[in-house]
Queue: 3 jobs
Job 1
Amino acid sequence: MRIDILTVVPELLESPFKHSILKRAQDNGVVEIHVHNIRDFSTDKHRKVDDYAFSGGAGMVMTIQPIEDAINHLKSQRDYDEVIYTSPDGEVFNQRIANQCSLYKNIIILCGHYKGVDQRVRDYLITREISIGDYVLTGGEMAAAVMVDAIVRLIPGAMSDETSALTDSFQDNLLSPPVYTRPADYKGWKVPDVLLSGNDRQVDEWKEKQAWERTKRLRPDLLEGHE
Ligand code: ADE
């Protein structure tokens, strides 16, 4: 998979992809992540990428030209499954969307900034708008980082233990069961006996029950539509 991110603040995305699973996934050739500075595509002599909104109003608007040129430059080299725009107006990102995106070959993520992009970018160039939650960020870069993290870990080969992505919270619309590690008894705080029993069937049953109970208690909304 290849992910191209377009931003006016590339510095914000210098670090998030350079560590842990995301770094390994890139080192192993599972994914390529490229961050592009939209300013590099501006034809303005001051590399301007924004302008005042017609009819006034507070805040600057990202202009079409550098964005269209950046997208066209990328599209001239390969086909893209989706051109995503990060925006609080978009459909709210979740595990289902992460799964869907993890199957794509190439995607572009355009990070919104200032007051957002000229509406014509959204009308003519964007195929999908995604929000990471009902709150407003100063820009779409953090949203892009969150999405890329959630997507990349689902690509086969990204995780050393591939089954662990399948047992995540939300993968079956259930939260994960609790996990424990050594010591089995810390100052009287004990690990449930069943986990020390060595009985795989009982352990599996316990985990499933815990997952259901936890979901019912913490996120009953996830169970709507379940038996
Ligand atoms: N840009 C600003 N707020 C955002 C959000 N909640 N999700 C995605 N992009 C954003």
Note: The two ends are 36 Å apart (CA to CA).
Job 2
Amino acid sequence: SKKKSLTGEKIVITAGPTYEKIDPVRFIGNYSSGKMGFALAEECAERGAEVTLIAGPVSLNSHNSSIRRVDVETAEEMFRETVEAFKNASVGIMCAAVADFTPASTADVKIKRTGEELSIALKPTRDIAAALGEIKKPEQKLIGFALETHNEVFNAQEKMRRKNLDFIVLNSLQDKGAGFRCDTNKITIFGIDGEKREYEMKSKAAVAADIIDFLEAIMH
Ligand code: C5P
């Protein structure tokens, strides 16, 4: 059993993908499994925190009774639940792969095949991390994730500043065994005060412990 170093802390974590409805039977989604976010929720709960886990559509279970799970489907629902939960939280961890675009309108009946080309107009979704960054109080901490295909370091640090995060976790896409759907991950953490920490490839449970160690170091 772990040291209850996060007793009294309320931590809100987003995890998984979002599904954006095209019509009653179709959606736009992504390959996020939610595993990293769920591993973070378990780690925080084991250290004594009260966790609210805002989960997109995933096929994962959480057993810890200190985790309050809120299931959502769309980016809009995730936005609403996360902003509400962050109001009396001490930490926000934005681990979800939120859709960047959603259909401008959802058809209320199934769209029929016509043999013609079909275009679906998309509108941007709201950025949850950036919204929390704007309402963040000095005593609250906010953590984000970045998955980049090019200029990784520059883009991750730019994102951290723009969204007013305390640190950002860069997922490597370069390494096999890291990122979406895997059980392992390889990360680098950049802190707002210029810290940089590179980690070895590890299980997502061990990566979660590293991330929460970094969090505790900036909290205390
Ligand atoms: O800008 P980008 O989507 O690459 O930023 C990734 C970070 O922002 C992640 O922490 C992700 O959870 C968060 N994010 C969010 N809401 C969005 C888009 C991204 O919270 N609509």
Note: The mean pLDDT is 95.
Job 3
Amino acid sequence: MASVTSLTDLVSKQLTSALSATRPETSADPLLRRSDRADFQANGILALAKKAKANPRDLATEVVSHITTGDVIKDVEVSGPGFLNITIADRAVLENLAARYADGTGRLGVPLAENPGITVIDYAQPNVAKEMHVGHLRSAVIGDALRGMLDFTGEKTIGRHHIGDWGTQFGMLIQYLMEHPGELAPPSEVDGDQAMSNLNRIYKASRAVFDADEAFKERARKRVVALQSGDKETLELWQQFVDESKVYFNSVFDKLDMEIRDDEIVGESAYNEGMPETARLLEEMGVAERSEGALVVFFDDIRGKDDKPVPLIVQKADGGFGYAASDLTAIRNRVFDLHADTLLYVVDVRQSLHFKMVFETARRAGWLNDDVTAHHIGFGTVLGADGKPFKTREGETVRLKDLLDEAVQRAAEVVREKAKDLTEEEIQERAAQVGIGAVKYADLSTSPTRDYKFDLDQMVSLNGDTSVYLQYAYARIRSILRKAGDVRPAAHPELELHEAERALGLHLDAFGDTVFEAAAEYAPHKLTAYLYQLASLYTTFYDKCPVLKAESPEQVENRLFLCDLTARTLTKGMSLLGIRTPERL
Ligand code: ARG
């Protein structure tokens, strides 16, 4: 199905040619945006006037003389210091929307990117044998939303769940398991909760022995060496920990209504084999140097206390590799084997320094450059009601699972209150969609870098900028469409638009442009803001314009059509963010 050019694009093009017809020697962007005064306002003439040393109002008048009003632009006026106020013909708005509506591909007429690239997104990366916490929630939710938006633009995305599945703590765990066989039930026999409680128990027990018993400590240390040298029996036990953890991770991702592909779970350990090569390459190129036995990279602008340079440690003096080496090796894999041109890392902002050093090292090595770039999407902290990092009353980190369960429970209260005619099963199903949606939306609607307060009452509120508000808007439209019975939605471009219809229509037209912008800036909050505004504009439209009781049959069909397109746009936008829109609430 043919894709639809947005009205913004159409008008922009007309303005650009009018600008260059006016001053062929100077190029300028018309800087078009939606406006309250007219449909669009163009502010670009001010900059052009400056460059061309002309009076902006005179120049604007000249530009207007080069614009042909007609099918699309109904009217254009000079205003203020040299702005253009542009009004679109009603027919053009409706025809544009009708074309979107007719797109059978589910893309609402939004074209695919002309030159899509390959983006590897590193997100949802919990740690083996450890509980997941709110930080892992943010990475999963933001990463999944970025992926949804990028996929929609036509970008090819590859997920990488860089789970923490390697490190010295495994020596302790494996040694303990060897000495206490049978403590870890096979993954096939446990559910997520049992898996995590097994792991917790073993973690605590092995820690206690480790701290109390010098001989065990020594055996655990030797076990690390055995693990690193690939000893078969040791690796098998390590794999058991990983598999048991995956049962738990998957149960949480399930609860989060998020699909995590097993082949995209590629943890730190996957890069073990490549690490010596990474070190060798960096040393040969002179990017890394030996310092006190370790292989390190220095940076002029990264210094610690006493102004001493803080290096990135590629290889420790004892020959061991750590977090940096695995990330550097992962970059080589993602760039050279997966052919990515963009690498995204959705990781806590507190790891910024690590990524700054890793990316700079990779750039010096030539693995990253102007065409192959890496970006750390650093997210802020989830705070409790007291404005401090979220903790339980006992001062422990809040378990992600408990948090999600509580959100679903609160949502169940809201759903039960609203819909009296639902069965208990239906309530539970909706509650999951509302509760998880609420958690995701609250996370996505603030810019990733900012901290936010985890406030369930606010998150499941029916009023304000929440997913529940959007889900209700959607469900209300679906109910109107059901009530319409045999009357089908249909566009009638010959009709005159009410002001509230125009505002809604122009906003609907901007969906594709918004997703592209939000995807390019890695800013899911731009899409949530768009959707919130869409629901608000719809509410105004619904208040001002009777739908089923409109004055003529054409008017009824046309308004049903606006309703339906709004519903489709809402559900599409929400789905890109990983949020469901139930048919009834
Ligand atoms: N597992 C790490 C953590 O829980 C996050 C991993 C981030 N990804 C990466 N490539 N370093 O903090």
Note: The chain has four domains: 7-88, 118-164+268-379, 169-263, 410-576.
